Amino acid sequence: MARGPHAPLFSTRNVWYPHRGTGTQIERTTLTSRSVNSDGANSSIDPAPARLTVGIVSAGRVGSALGVALERAGHVVFGVAAISDASVHRARTRLPEAEVLPIEQIAQRSELLLLAVPDAELAGLVRGLASANVVRPGTIVVHTSGANGVAILEPLTKQGALGLAIHPAMTFTGHDEDIARLANACFGVTAADEVGYAIAQALVIEMGGEPVRVEEDQRSLYHAALAHGSNHLVTVIVDAVAALRESLSGPGLLGQPLVDDQPGGLPERLLAPLASAALDNALRRGQAALTGPVARGDVDAVAAHLAALAQVDDRLAEAYRANSLRTAELAETDPALLELLAKEGH
Questions:
Q1: Are 84 and 112 a contacting pair, CB within 8 Å?
Q2: How far apart are the first and last CA of the chain?
Q3: Dihedral in degrees, nearest 10, Cα atoms 84, 177, 202, 130
Q4: What are the CA-CA distances from residue 280 to residues 59, 273, 277 (Å)?
Q5: CA angle (199, 65, 112) in 5-degree steps
Q6: DSSP codes joined into one string, 274-315
Q7: How many CA atoms, within 13 angstroms, populate the side-chain half-sphere of residue 3?
Q8: DSSP states of 22-78 as a string?
Q9: Residue-wise over 42-79: b if at least 16 C-beta within 10 A, else e?
Q10: Distance (Å, whole) CA 92 – CA 42
Q11: For a designed S-S bond to 189, which of 89, 109, 163, 200 qualifies (C-beta 3.0 to 4.6 A apart)?
Q12: Alpha carbons 251 and 233: distance in angstroms, whole number
């Protein structure tokens, strides 16, 4: 039977969670998540009261969105750390029942402590919490860094915490769509043992996502792949829109507004269906989705592209050359085109 977008991959019954109210021992409980039969069909939804008290550091785009998802799953977000005005606003609007508290108080009271801080700040935060000895043994400590596994949590796991890496493979803007997108997102999860993986998987399913196991020594490669496929996609689109603006400058057709530098204009409307179709084809058909002059080995067209782009911005032309070279290698296209693109880079 085909699995629906929100159906879990496995039964989430009888996963170990810290006993509520102590954070010092492990007790077998029943989850509120869906459970499934061996054929993948939903068999039931197990009702249960909220199980974990959750503290979040901090109420940024990621932390506040995951906080909402955890609350919807029945957990209680009691407190968040928020320093900037934007974080305080997100905390009060997205998690109105939670108090804005100092980090130490959040750590002391949490059964599930969610560390949703930038990658560069995570190690220092973990060391500081361990030095202050404010995380109780048995606390589930989850970080959301894509680049790190559970080794970075070692100062806390040595003190008895259960460390998990749960990274939502999604971009966050700080707007309402962040929460809705979690329901269709995969989460890269890493744990030290099978008990940890079971808890991580259960938490992800409760938040509406799909858990994907990532081994500790593969986190950097996993994160690099996601950055390459998402962050660099934005760069390519922004560059393409800039070139389109230049090519469309001047008088438009009757009744058509002039092209300006505001987003959502004619260049974006021109590119959107083409880019959307290309992305869909790439995800569904892989390398067979390659089209265009580079894939065809059209040396003259590519040379003309490079010259035209160089007149707008040399950096834009260089980015096009680098991407074209990789495309030509994938397509195993005309050797003359490969030679042209390789020469252009020197």
A1: no
A2: 54
A3: -10
A4: 33, 10, 5
A5: 35
A6: HHHHHHHHHHHHGGGG--SHHHHT-HHHHHHHHHHHHHH-HH
A7: 15
A8: TSSSEEEE--SSEEE-TTS-EEEE-------EEEEE--SHHHHHHHHHHHHTT-EEE
A9: eeeeeeeeebbbbbbbbbbbbbbbbbbbbbebbbbbbb
A10: 35
A11: 200
A12: 30
Tell which residue, 135, 178, 173, 181, has the closest CA to residue 154.
135
Return the structure tokens found at 111: 């059964």
The span from the CA of 276 to the CA of 288, in Å, is: 16
Question: What confidence tens digit (pLDDT) does each residue in 35-94 have?
Answer: 334 344 444 444 444 489 999 999 999 999 999 999 999 999 999 999 999 899 999 999
Angle at 168 between CA 136 and CA 191, to 5 degrees: 45
Mean pLDDT of 101-109: 97
Token pair, residue 183, equals 């329901």
Confidence of residue 275 (pLDDT cuts 50, 70, 90): very high
Q: How sure is the predictor about 344, in pLDDT bands with cuts at 50, 70 and 90?
A: low
Please enumerate, as own/partner, the contacts of 219-223 that have beta carbons within 8 Å and a separation of 24 or more: 219/146, 219/147, 219/148, 219/149, 219/165, 219/188, 219/190, 220/147, 222/146, 222/188, 223/146, 223/147, 223/167
What is d(CA 230, CA 215) in angstroms, rounded to the nearest whole number? 21
Give the tokens for residue 23: 């954070």
Which residues 6+ apart lie within 8 Å of 167 measured at CB? 144, 145, 146, 187, 188, 189, 214, 223
In whole angstroms, what separates CA 320 from the centre of its chain?
26
DSSP 8-state symbol, 217: G
What is the DSSP annotation of 68-119?
HHHHHTT-EEEEEE--SHHHHHHHHHH-TTSEE--HHHHHHH-SEEEE---H
Backbone dihedral region for residue 55 (phi beyond 0: left; psi -120 to 50: alpha; all else: beta) = beta
Judge if pTM exceeds 0.70: yes
